[in-house]
Amino acid sequence: MATRMILRGALKKRTFFFPPSFSTSRNGSTLVLAEHENGAIKPPSLSALHAATCLPNNDDSSVSLLLAGSGPSLHQAASHAASSHPSISKVLVADSDTFKNQLAEPWAKLVHLVQQRDGYSHIIAASNSFGKNVMPRAAALLDVSPVTDVTGISDSHTFIRPIYAGNALCTVRYTGASPCILTIRSTSFPVSHKSVDSKSDKASISQVDLSTFDEDLDKSRYISQTSRDDEGPDLGNARIVVTGGRALKSAENFKLIENLAKKLGAAVGATRAAVDAGFVANDLQVGQTGKIVAPELYMAFGVSGAIQHIAGMRDSKVIVAVNNDADAPIFQVADYGLVGDLFEVLPELLEKLPEKK
Protein backbone atom coordinates (compact mmCIF):
# COMPACT_ATOMS: atom_id res chain seq x y z
CA MET A 1 0.00 0.00 0.00
CA ALA A 2 1.35 3.42 -0.90
CA THR A 3 0.63 5.86 1.89
CA ARG A 4 1.19 9.44 2.89
CA MET A 5 1.13 9.90 6.66
CA ILE A 6 0.92 13.14 8.60
CA LEU A 7 1.39 12.84 12.37
CA ARG A 8 -0.33 15.30 14.66
CA GLY A 9 -1.00 15.47 18.35
CA ALA A 10 1.63 15.11 21.04
CA LEU A 11 4.40 14.59 18.51
CA LYS A 12 6.04 16.93 16.03
CA LYS A 13 4.24 17.03 12.71
CA ARG A 14 5.96 14.80 10.19
CA THR A 15 5.21 13.61 6.69
CA PHE A 16 6.22 10.24 5.29
CA PHE A 17 6.18 9.31 1.61
CA PHE A 18 6.18 5.82 0.19
CA PRO A 19 6.48 4.82 -3.47
CA PRO A 20 3.03 4.77 -5.13
CA SER A 21 1.53 1.61 -6.49
CA PHE A 22 -0.98 0.99 -9.22
CA SER A 23 -4.50 2.00 -8.20
CA THR A 24 -7.77 0.83 -9.65
CA SER A 25 -11.41 1.29 -8.68
CA ARG A 26 -14.08 -0.74 -10.40
CA ASN A 27 -17.04 0.97 -8.71
CA GLY A 28 -18.00 3.08 -5.74
CA SER A 29 -19.82 0.44 -3.72
CA THR A 30 -18.89 -0.78 -0.26
CA LEU A 31 -19.13 -4.17 1.42
CA VAL A 32 -19.58 -4.35 5.20
CA LEU A 33 -18.76 -7.58 7.03
CA ALA A 34 -21.26 -8.10 9.84
CA GLU A 35 -21.54 -10.29 12.92
CA HIS A 36 -24.96 -11.35 14.12
CA GLU A 37 -26.38 -12.88 17.27
CA ASN A 38 -29.93 -13.95 18.18
CA GLY A 39 -31.28 -12.65 14.90
CA ALA A 40 -29.78 -9.15 15.14
CA ILE A 41 -26.68 -7.37 13.89
CA LYS A 42 -24.10 -6.77 16.64
CA PRO A 43 -23.40 -3.12 17.60
CA PRO A 44 -19.76 -3.05 16.35
CA SER A 45 -21.00 -4.09 12.91
CA LEU A 46 -23.61 -1.32 13.00
CA SER A 47 -20.73 1.09 13.64
CA ALA A 48 -18.94 -0.34 10.60
CA LEU A 49 -22.12 0.25 8.61
CA HIS A 50 -22.22 3.84 9.83
CA ALA A 51 -18.57 4.27 8.80
CA ALA A 52 -19.45 3.03 5.31
CA THR A 53 -22.01 5.83 4.94
CA CYS A 54 -19.28 8.36 5.79
CA LEU A 55 -17.40 7.54 2.59
CA PRO A 56 -18.02 10.41 0.13
CA ASN A 57 -18.51 8.08 -2.83
CA ASN A 58 -21.32 6.18 -1.12
CA ASP A 59 -25.04 6.86 -1.30
CA ASP A 60 -28.15 5.01 -0.21
CA SER A 61 -27.75 2.46 -3.00
CA SER A 62 -24.13 1.46 -2.65
CA VAL A 63 -23.67 -0.37 0.69
CA SER A 64 -23.97 -4.14 0.84
CA LEU A 65 -23.98 -6.19 4.05
CA LEU A 66 -22.38 -9.64 4.17
CA LEU A 67 -23.76 -12.14 6.70
CA ALA A 68 -22.61 -15.72 7.11
CA GLY A 69 -23.62 -18.63 9.30
CA SER A 70 -26.41 -21.16 9.36
CA GLY A 71 -29.87 -21.71 10.79
CA PRO A 72 -32.90 -19.49 11.46
CA SER A 73 -30.87 -16.88 13.34
CA LEU A 74 -28.92 -16.01 10.19
CA HIS A 75 -32.02 -15.45 8.08
CA GLN A 76 -33.74 -13.54 10.86
CA ALA A 77 -30.74 -11.20 11.08
CA ALA A 78 -30.74 -10.76 7.29
CA SER A 79 -34.46 -9.96 7.21
CA HIS A 80 -34.15 -7.51 10.10
CA ALA A 81 -31.17 -5.75 8.50
CA ALA A 82 -32.89 -5.50 5.13
CA SER A 83 -36.00 -3.88 6.57
CA SER A 84 -34.60 -1.83 9.46
CA HIS A 85 -31.39 -0.18 8.30
CA PRO A 86 -31.81 2.50 5.62
CA SER A 87 -28.12 2.52 4.73
CA ILE A 88 -28.23 -1.04 3.33
CA SER A 89 -29.13 -1.58 -0.30
CA LYS A 90 -28.36 -5.30 -0.46
CA VAL A 91 -27.90 -8.11 2.06
CA LEU A 92 -25.67 -11.00 0.99
CA VAL A 93 -26.24 -14.26 2.88
CA ALA A 94 -23.75 -17.15 2.95
CA ASP A 95 -25.68 -20.04 4.50
CA SER A 96 -23.37 -22.93 5.40
CA ASP A 97 -22.23 -24.79 8.50
CA THR A 98 -18.71 -23.77 7.46
CA PHE A 99 -19.38 -20.28 8.84
CA LYS A 100 -21.25 -21.36 11.96
CA ASN A 101 -18.32 -20.68 14.33
CA GLN A 102 -16.77 -17.64 12.60
CA LEU A 103 -13.38 -19.18 11.84
CA ALA A 104 -11.15 -16.64 10.14
CA GLU A 105 -9.94 -18.78 7.23
CA PRO A 106 -13.32 -19.60 5.65
CA TRP A 107 -14.56 -16.06 6.28
CA ALA A 108 -11.50 -14.62 4.48
CA LYS A 109 -12.11 -16.93 1.53
CA LEU A 110 -15.74 -15.86 1.48
CA VAL A 111 -14.72 -12.20 1.29
CA HIS A 112 -12.34 -13.06 -1.55
CA LEU A 113 -15.10 -14.92 -3.39
CA VAL A 114 -17.61 -12.08 -3.05
CA GLN A 115 -15.04 -9.46 -4.05
CA GLN A 116 -14.01 -11.40 -7.16
CA ARG A 117 -17.67 -11.52 -8.20
CA ASP A 118 -18.84 -7.99 -7.35
CA GLY A 119 -15.67 -5.85 -7.30
CA TYR A 120 -16.32 -3.54 -4.36
CA SER A 121 -14.20 -0.41 -3.96
CA HIS A 122 -14.18 -0.66 -0.14
CA ILE A 123 -14.54 -3.51 2.36
CA ILE A 124 -15.14 -2.55 6.00
CA ALA A 125 -15.36 -4.40 9.32
CA ALA A 126 -15.17 -3.39 12.96
CA SER A 127 -11.75 -3.40 14.59
CA ASN A 128 -12.73 -6.05 17.14
CA SER A 129 -11.59 -9.65 17.49
CA PHE A 130 -13.71 -10.65 14.48
CA GLY A 131 -12.44 -7.91 12.17
CA LYS A 132 -8.83 -8.23 13.30
CA ASN A 133 -9.03 -11.96 12.61
CA VAL A 134 -10.64 -11.88 9.18
CA MET A 135 -9.55 -8.69 7.43
CA PRO A 136 -5.75 -9.22 7.31
CA ARG A 137 -6.31 -12.69 5.84
CA ALA A 138 -8.79 -11.35 3.30
CA ALA A 139 -6.36 -8.55 2.39
CA ALA A 140 -3.60 -11.09 1.81
CA LEU A 141 -5.83 -13.15 -0.48
CA LEU A 142 -6.70 -10.00 -2.44
CA ASP A 143 -3.05 -8.84 -2.46
CA VAL A 144 -3.75 -5.45 -0.87
CA SER A 145 -2.73 -3.79 2.39
CA PRO A 146 -5.46 -3.00 4.96
CA VAL A 147 -5.80 0.30 6.80
CA THR A 148 -6.54 -0.67 10.39
CA ASP A 149 -8.15 0.93 13.43
CA VAL A 150 -9.55 3.91 11.52
CA THR A 151 -11.04 6.65 13.69
CA GLY A 152 -11.89 9.19 11.01
CA ILE A 153 -12.68 9.35 7.28
CA SER A 154 -11.59 12.45 5.35
CA ASP A 155 -12.41 11.20 1.88
CA SER A 156 -12.74 7.91 0.02
CA HIS A 157 -9.02 7.15 0.32
CA THR A 158 -7.84 9.35 3.21
CA PHE A 159 -8.24 8.13 6.76
CA ILE A 160 -7.21 9.01 10.31
CA ARG A 161 -5.87 6.41 12.72
CA PRO A 162 -4.07 6.55 16.09
CA ILE A 163 -0.43 5.55 16.56
CA TYR A 164 1.97 5.42 19.52
CA ALA A 165 -0.73 4.18 21.91
CA GLY A 166 -3.06 6.97 20.87
CA ASN A 167 -0.59 9.77 21.64
CA ALA A 168 -0.58 10.85 18.02
CA LEU A 169 -2.91 10.66 15.04
CA CYS A 170 -1.75 10.01 11.51
CA THR A 171 -3.51 10.80 8.27
CA VAL A 172 -3.11 7.93 5.83
CA ARG A 173 -3.66 8.27 2.09
CA TYR A 174 -4.38 4.90 0.45
CA THR A 175 -3.17 4.73 -3.17
CA GLY A 176 -3.08 0.96 -3.62
CA ALA A 177 -5.21 -1.31 -5.76
CA SER A 178 -8.90 -1.92 -5.06
CA PRO A 179 -10.45 -2.86 -2.79
CA CYS A 180 -9.54 -0.48 0.01
CA ILE A 181 -9.85 -2.65 3.14
CA LEU A 182 -10.61 -0.91 6.43
CA THR A 183 -11.15 -1.89 10.04
CA ILE A 184 -12.79 0.88 12.04
CA ARG A 185 -12.75 1.68 15.73
CA SER A 186 -16.42 1.33 16.64
CA THR A 187 -16.26 3.94 19.42
CA SER A 188 -15.37 6.56 16.79
CA PHE A 189 -18.48 5.82 14.71
CA PRO A 190 -21.33 5.70 17.24
CA VAL A 191 -24.65 4.48 15.93
CA SER A 192 -27.43 7.04 16.01
CA HIS A 193 -31.05 6.06 16.57
CA LYS A 194 -31.78 7.16 13.00
CA SER A 195 -29.52 4.39 11.73
CA VAL A 196 -31.85 1.73 13.04
CA ASP A 197 -35.20 3.31 12.25
CA SER A 198 -37.58 1.31 10.12
CA LYS A 199 -37.79 2.16 6.42
CA SER A 200 -40.40 1.67 3.76
CA ASP A 201 -38.10 0.25 1.08
CA LYS A 202 -36.74 -3.14 1.98
CA ALA A 203 -33.25 -4.00 0.77
CA SER A 204 -32.84 -7.03 -1.45
CA ILE A 205 -31.58 -10.29 0.08
CA SER A 206 -29.55 -12.65 -2.08
CA GLN A 207 -27.78 -15.92 -1.41
CA VAL A 208 -24.05 -16.15 -2.08
CA ASP A 209 -23.28 -18.92 -4.57
CA LEU A 210 -20.97 -21.27 -2.65
CA SER A 211 -20.74 -23.94 -5.35
CA THR A 212 -17.10 -23.04 -6.03
CA PHE A 213 -16.21 -22.37 -2.40
CA ASP A 214 -13.26 -24.44 -1.16
CA GLU A 215 -13.70 -25.09 2.57
CA ASP A 216 -10.09 -26.13 3.32
CA LEU A 217 -10.37 -26.14 7.12
CA ASP A 218 -7.03 -27.82 7.77
CA LYS A 219 -5.44 -24.70 9.25
CA SER A 220 -7.88 -24.25 12.12
CA ARG A 221 -10.88 -25.92 13.68
CA TYR A 222 -13.49 -24.97 16.24
CA ILE A 223 -13.13 -26.67 19.63
CA SER A 224 -15.37 -24.88 22.12
CA GLN A 225 -16.57 -21.53 23.37
CA THR A 226 -16.83 -20.43 26.98
CA SER A 227 -18.45 -17.36 28.49
CA ARG A 228 -18.76 -15.79 31.90
CA ASP A 229 -21.73 -16.77 34.03
CA ASP A 230 -22.88 -13.24 34.81
CA GLU A 231 -25.36 -11.44 32.60
CA GLY A 232 -23.84 -7.98 32.78
CA PRO A 233 -23.62 -5.57 29.83
CA ASP A 234 -21.09 -6.21 27.08
CA LEU A 235 -17.87 -4.36 27.88
CA GLY A 236 -17.45 -2.92 24.40
CA ASN A 237 -20.91 -1.34 24.29
CA ALA A 238 -21.80 -0.60 27.93
CA ARG A 239 -23.00 2.86 29.01
CA ILE A 240 -21.07 2.54 32.29
CA VAL A 241 -17.77 0.73 32.84
CA VAL A 242 -16.21 0.07 36.25
CA THR A 243 -12.54 -0.88 36.02
CA GLY A 244 -10.10 -2.20 38.62
CA GLY A 245 -6.32 -2.26 38.59
CA ARG A 246 -3.51 -4.17 40.22
CA ALA A 247 -3.99 -2.18 43.45
CA LEU A 248 -6.94 -4.47 44.29
CA LYS A 249 -4.27 -7.09 45.11
CA SER A 250 -6.34 -10.26 44.62
CA ALA A 251 -9.21 -11.87 42.73
CA GLU A 252 -11.20 -11.92 45.97
CA ASN A 253 -10.84 -8.15 46.37
CA PHE A 254 -11.77 -7.65 42.72
CA LYS A 255 -15.28 -8.75 43.66
CA LEU A 256 -15.70 -5.23 45.07
CA ILE A 257 -15.50 -3.96 41.48
CA GLU A 258 -17.96 -6.62 40.30
CA ASN A 259 -20.42 -5.79 43.10
CA LEU A 260 -20.27 -2.08 42.29
CA ALA A 261 -20.83 -2.84 38.60
CA LYS A 262 -23.94 -4.86 39.46
CA LYS A 263 -25.38 -2.00 41.50
CA LEU A 264 -24.78 0.45 38.65
CA GLY A 265 -25.82 -1.89 35.85
CA ALA A 266 -22.31 -1.48 34.48
CA ALA A 267 -19.76 -3.65 32.69
CA VAL A 268 -16.61 -4.77 34.45
CA GLY A 269 -13.20 -3.81 33.08
CA ALA A 270 -9.63 -4.42 34.15
CA THR A 271 -6.12 -3.22 33.43
CA ARG A 272 -3.56 -5.50 31.82
CA ALA A 273 -1.73 -5.73 35.15
CA ALA A 274 -4.88 -7.03 36.85
CA VAL A 275 -5.45 -9.53 34.06
CA ASP A 276 -1.83 -10.72 34.11
CA ALA A 277 -2.09 -11.16 37.88
CA GLY A 278 -5.03 -13.51 37.35
CA PHE A 279 -7.68 -11.38 39.04
CA VAL A 280 -10.07 -11.65 36.05
CA ALA A 281 -10.24 -13.16 32.57
CA ASN A 282 -8.43 -11.41 29.73
CA ASP A 283 -11.68 -10.64 27.86
CA LEU A 284 -12.23 -7.86 30.43
CA GLN A 285 -8.98 -6.06 29.62
CA VAL A 286 -9.32 -2.42 28.59
CA GLY A 287 -6.48 -0.82 26.68
CA GLN A 288 -4.35 -0.83 23.58
CA THR A 289 -4.02 -4.63 23.63
CA GLY A 290 -7.51 -5.16 25.03
CA LYS A 291 -10.88 -3.59 24.28
CA ILE A 292 -11.45 0.01 23.26
CA VAL A 293 -14.37 1.52 25.15
CA ALA A 294 -16.09 4.90 25.15
CA PRO A 295 -18.91 4.72 27.73
CA GLU A 296 -20.87 7.63 29.12
CA LEU A 297 -19.25 6.99 32.51
CA TYR A 298 -15.89 5.31 33.14
CA MET A 299 -14.90 4.63 36.77
CA ALA A 300 -11.31 3.57 37.49
CA PHE A 301 -10.28 2.19 40.88
CA GLY A 302 -6.61 1.57 41.62
CA VAL A 303 -5.68 2.30 37.99
CA SER A 304 -2.37 4.13 37.62
CA GLY A 305 -3.03 5.27 34.05
CA ALA A 306 -0.39 3.69 31.81
CA ILE A 307 -0.53 5.05 28.26
CA GLN A 308 -1.58 1.62 26.95
CA HIS A 309 -4.63 1.68 29.22
CA ILE A 310 -5.45 5.33 28.51
CA ALA A 311 -5.48 4.51 24.80
CA GLY A 312 -8.42 2.19 25.40
CA MET A 313 -10.70 4.53 27.37
CA ARG A 314 -9.69 8.14 26.74
CA ASP A 315 -12.81 8.77 24.60
CA SER A 316 -15.13 8.11 27.55
CA LYS A 317 -17.59 10.97 28.12
CA VAL A 318 -16.96 11.25 31.91
CA ILE A 319 -13.97 9.69 33.66
CA VAL A 320 -13.88 9.20 37.42
CA ALA A 321 -10.65 7.99 39.07
CA VAL A 322 -9.86 6.83 42.60
CA ASN A 323 -6.20 6.31 43.50
CA ASN A 324 -4.10 6.82 46.62
CA ASP A 325 -1.30 8.40 44.55
CA ALA A 326 -2.05 12.05 43.84
CA ASP A 327 0.51 12.02 41.01
CA ALA A 328 -0.98 9.03 39.18
CA PRO A 329 -1.24 9.71 35.40
CA ILE A 330 -4.93 8.68 35.43
CA PHE A 331 -5.77 12.02 37.05
CA GLN A 332 -4.50 13.86 33.96
CA VAL A 333 -7.41 12.51 31.90
CA ALA A 334 -10.01 12.21 34.67
CA ASP A 335 -12.93 14.63 34.91
CA TYR A 336 -13.31 13.82 38.60
CA GLY A 337 -10.55 12.46 40.82
CA LEU A 338 -10.44 11.29 44.39
CA VAL A 339 -7.16 10.68 46.21
CA GLY A 340 -7.96 7.95 48.68
CA ASP A 341 -7.78 4.30 49.67
CA LEU A 342 -10.00 2.27 47.35
CA PHE A 343 -10.59 -0.26 50.14
CA GLU A 344 -12.32 2.54 52.05
CA VAL A 345 -14.02 4.22 49.08
CA LEU A 346 -15.51 1.10 47.46
CA PRO A 347 -17.25 -0.30 50.59
CA GLU A 348 -18.70 3.14 51.30
CA LEU A 349 -20.01 3.43 47.73
CA LEU A 350 -21.52 -0.04 47.93
CA GLU A 351 -23.21 0.82 51.19
CA LYS A 352 -24.75 4.09 50.00
CA LEU A 353 -25.79 3.09 46.47
CA PRO A 354 -29.23 1.54 46.16
CA GLU A 355 -29.67 -1.85 44.52
CA LYS A 356 -30.37 -1.67 40.80
CA LYS A 357 -33.93 -2.68 40.06
TrEMBL record:
InterPro entries: DHS-like_NAD/FAD-binding_dom (IPR029035), ETF_a/b_N (IPR014730), ETF_a/FixB (IPR001308), ETF_alpha_N (IPR033947), ETF_asu_C (IPR014731), ETF_asu_C_CS (IPR018206), Rossmann-like_a/b/a_fold (IPR014729). One of its GO terms (cellular component) is mitochondrion. The electron transfer flavoprotein serves as a specific electron acceptor for several dehydrogenases, including five acyl-CoA dehydrogenases, glutaryl-CoA and sarcosine dehydrogenase. It transfers the electrons to the main mitochondrial respiratory chain via ETF-ubiquinone oxidoreductase (ETF dehydrogenase). Belongs to the ETF alpha-subunit/FixB family. It is found in: Mitochondrion matrix. It comes from Medicago truncatula. Keywords: Electron transport, FAD, Flavoprotein, Mitochondrion, Oxidoreductase, Transit peptide, Transport. Heterodimer of an alpha and a beta subunit. Binds 1 FAD per dimer. Its cofactor is FAD. GO terms for biological process: fatty acid beta-oxidation using acyl-CoA dehydrogenase. Gene3D superfamilies: HUPs, TPP-binding domain. FAD binds at residues 246, 271-272, 285-289, 302-309, 323. Its main location: mitochondrion. Residues 30-217 form the Electron transfer flavoprotein alpha/beta-subunit N-terminal domain. This is Electron transfer flavoprotein subunit alpha. One of its GO terms (molecular function) is oxidoreductase activity.
